[in-house]
Write a structure and sequence with these properties.
The protein has one domain. It is built from 16 helices and no strands. The two termini are about 25 Å apart. About 65% of the residues lie in helices and about 0% in strands. It is globular, with a radius of gyration of 21 Å.
């Protein structure tokens, strides 16, 4: 079976696509409320969830996609490429809000269940359409489950170009600056304003920039072969993940074991997601380190059909995330209206996963990147054709 080759001529790191695709499938499952399959996703086995994995890999893949442009052609050329990607994400985000807002409003009207609008927060478009639309365009209005793409827009536009420029010059300075911003955000409760949440963005960019920076720093050193295998560090990572597993205690979801906890739930205080708690950060970093040292970028099992299906999802992450978000709302409505029977939940989950994998495989067969998949008429007027080397996706 032929190996995957990036547009730069080097072999593509199949681990990134696989784990990013797996994170996307987890996100779909987690976004269906009260979903029985949601008990088997990453968030039930440690402090972090699929969102942390996704953001960490975003930083890693950004270096692979844009790093050589920043190094060889300078900041201006690198920023131009990053800006093209940011524009794609921004357009997809607005399109996703439009589709979900209209769909949930129609569902509310048809079924008479106002929870479909209010629980997600799209009711504001009906109550004050002009103001809500303007705030959505400014990324201040972020309906629930539609708030991770704004994080990408802000980080990729205002932070990652600086990091990508600084990495070959002084990578440790990038990490120190990132840690400083993360610490300040936690100490000062600094965040951006949000219409939906009084405390600010659910994914606070001042805190979450640390995770995408760690991913970028890891990719930078990995390209230089400077991340060696360390047995003590490996066992420390395993030990921390085991501690997280025991603390979260996933077995408490089994009938009869609800109170069988080893640690008190409040022992560690608030494991905050908005400000990227240290517990969550360490969890995803430990997972990333083990994947980096124990798995080869071209491991044979990554070419297995099931692994390749996940890889296709990861390679076309923008489309699959948006489609998965829409399908999660559809699945939620189906379960609310038809009942949360186990058979129907299994059907909704595997039906949705099947649609996502099928869509990703179709995109892979087209042999095109995400860039040309969104509204060709819009792309015609806003984006010039790119060379093959520019099609590598972040």
């Amino acid at each position: 079976m032929p190996t995957s080759v990036s547009s730069s001529g080097s072999q593509r790191d199949l681990r990134i696509d696989f784990f990013r695709g797996l994170a996307l499938l987890f996100i779909f499952v987690d976004h269906v409320p009260d979903n029985v399959l949601g008990r088997l996703t990453l968030r039930n086995f440690g402090f972090a969830d699929a969102a942390e994995v996704f953001v960490l890999l975003a930083g890693f893949s950004a270096v692979l996609a844009y790093g050589r442009t920043f190094e060889g052609q300078g900041f201006k050329a690198g920023f131009a490429r990053v800006f093209d990607r940011v524009r794609d994400i921004y357009l997809w985000h607005l399109a996703l809000i439009l589709v979900c807002g209209i769909g949930l409003t129609l569902a509310t009207t048809y079924f008479g269940n106002f929870a479909y609008m209010h629980n997600i927060g799209v009711h504001v478009f009906v109550e004050d359409p002009t103001r809500s639309t303007v705030l959505a365009a400014l990324l201040v209005n972020q309906p629930n489950s539609l708030n991770i793409l704004p994080l990408y827009v802000v980080l990729m536009l205002f932070w990652m170009p600086f990091v990508l420029w600084l990495l070959p010059r002084n990578p440790w300075q990038a990490l120190v600056l990132s840690l400083g911003m993360w610490s300040a955000a936690n100490l000062l409760s600094a965040n951006l304003p949000s219409l939906q949440h009084p405390q600010g963005w659910v994914f606070n960019p001042f805190a979450w920039q640390l995770l995408i920076t760690v991913g970028a720093l890891t990719a930078h050193f990995n390209r230089q072969g400077k991340i060696p295998f360390s047995r003590p560090l490996m066992w420390a990572s395993v030990g921390y993940l085991l501690f997280g597993f025991l603390f979260v205690a996933p077995w408490t979801q089994i009938p009869g074991f609800e109170n069988a906890r080893i640690f008190a739930p409040d022992m560690l205080g608030a494991i905050d997601k908005t400000y990227l708690s240290t517990w969550r950060l360490a969890n995803v970093v430990a997972l990333g380190y083990l994947a980096l040292i124990l798995l080869s970028p071209q491991s044979p099992w990554l070419t297995h059909p099931l692994a390749r299906s996940s890889g296709h999802c990861g390679r076309h992450s923008l489309e699959i995330f948006c489609l998965g978000t829409v399908l999660s709302f559809v699945g939620w409505i189906v379960l609310v209206e038809a009942g949360y029977g186990l058979a129907l939940q299994i059907l909704v989950n595997f039906g949705g996963i099947g649609i996502l994998v099928g869509a990703a495989c179709l995109l892979a067969m087209r042999g095109r990147g995400t860039d040309w998949a969104l509204v060709p008429a819009v792309r015609k007027y806003f984006v010039l054709p790119r060379s093959g080397a520019q099609q590598l996706q972040a």
